[in-house]
Amino acid sequence: MRAVIQRVSEASVTVDHKVCAVMQDGLLILLGVEDEDGDEDIDWLCRKIINMRIFNDEDGVMNESLKSVDGDAIVVSQFTLHASTKKGNRPSYIKAAKPEVAEPMYEKFIQKFEKEFGKNVGAGSFGADMKVSLLNDGPVTILLDSKDKR
In which residues does the motif Gly-cisPro motif, important for rejection of L-amino acids occur (predicted)? Predict the structure, then answer.
């Protein structure tokens, strides 16, 4: 399971000109699922994201977590995080899980995240053509991979 987390001042997700989620001050989480992902990947990724100290403290040092600043979050499914660009110019998405596997894992991730975080988060619409808008704060953008634990 891969995630790109971005510290944002604001973010929103729109599908068919309708806003699905909107937030201020927190994390936009782009989530990619592969076939081998399981509960342990969800658990590790949720804990890592919620507790990662990437928000500024009173001295301007990244020393606070999403949980400690009581920030918000939006989770968006993004199969392209598993793109392979080894050959040619057209990425292959062979490692990305098929929708029948990925969607339940995406929903399970959101449920686990909300339980661990202690509040509801926004979400995109799985499989839809989404328009994601954000104002990256910092900028702070981090790639996490549950298989590499980095």
Answer: 138-139
Report which residue type is found at 14. T
**Residues with catalytic annotation?**
78-80
Contact (CB, 8 A) for 65 and 50: yes
Q: What token pair was written down for 2?
A: 């891969």
Coil, helix or strand at residue 6: strand
- Is 0.70 topped by the overall pTM? yes
CA–CA separation, 144 and 69 (whole Å): 21
CB of 78 within 8 A of CB of 123?
Answer: no
Strand partners, 28: 6, 74
Which of 137, 133, 117, 115 minimizes the C-alpha distance to 22?
133
Q: Which of 83, 112, 115, 110 lies closest to 96, judged by CA?
A: 83
Q: How far apart are CA 110 and CA 130, in angstroms?
A: 18
**According to CATH, what is the number of the domain 2-145?**
3.50.80.10
Domain ranges of the chain: 2-145
